Amino acid sequence: MILYIFYFKDSVIRLYMPFPHGPDKAIYVFGHPIESIISQINRFETCATNPAKLHNDQSFPQFKTIANLCQYAAQHNDFDPFGIAKQFFNFLYAPSLPYPILFVRSDALTQSTQEVADFIGVKEQVNWVAKKRQSSIELLPDGERTCLENLYAPLAAFMNTMPPLLLKPAAKNIDINCGYDDAKYISLKINSVEQAETENSLIVSLTLHNRSHKSLSTVANAIDVIHISYHWLNAQSAVFVIYDGERHAIVPSVYAGYSYTYRVKIQIPSELAVAAAAQYILRVTLVQEQVGWFDEAEPPVFDDVLIEIVGK
Length: 312
Prior knowledge:
Blueprint: E1 3-8, E2 11-13, E3 25-30, H1 33-42, H2 66-76, H3 84-92, E4 101-105, H4 113-120, H5 142-161, E5 165-168, E6 186-195, E7 201-210, E8 226-234, E9 240-242, E10 248-249, E11 259-267, E12 278-288, E13 292-293, E14 302-309
Parallel strand pairs: 3-4
Antiparallel strand pairs: 1-2, 1-3, 4-5, 6-7, 7-11, 8-9, 8-10, 8-12, 12-13, 12-14
């Protein structure tokens, strides 16, 4: 069983990797990885409308049968095709998380409800009801049973050596936000540009992808805050016409390993509305105040789109 729950005050979410910051605390329930995989794949008929159930995360392949998983593992020499080991150790060894994680072994849940309640900070009784499922490895053919044991028996043995309850404390005084020096882990792509309802403005759809281990966000009250911004260049000469574009907050944040698409409204400067039609390059990038523009980083982070502005 692999259950990973982040508590944002009263809400609960699940994900493959821990957020670099944001939650108050997290609970990770672990144990029986082989049975967990069998249970997930046995739900194929009920997962047709939710294919995410057929794999651990969108980063991993979908498997409709155990045989399919074993075949993939053999062909790709992949010893963790379902991603459970990667997920478990991502949480267990994640460096510098500013919130605590309580690891609870699944066979200790019924005896640990008070400890879980104390960790969450609730006075109500926490109840755990285990659901019966047909996930015994003994029900599998010999070949599939041997395959899963070869893949995940070492992880199951490691989990069994862990204590029933393990508290990973929060780290202190850590750098949790991306900066100019992390440009090599960030990419920006313009998806589309459309005319806004307001005259002389555009709506730009862009996607930021964050491959770093930090969060990419606009941090309030920070002197060196990061924003989405832009330049206007002459399409013929590539000379900057408007260098210092307006700032747009990166909200919500792009967490480590994730992407997010934003719709940004960009005003067309009045000085570009010349008497005759002209073409300009709109260069969208990021800027860290007091530090630098990401299109000047190495490697540069930006995307260009050609815009034709019709004069008045």
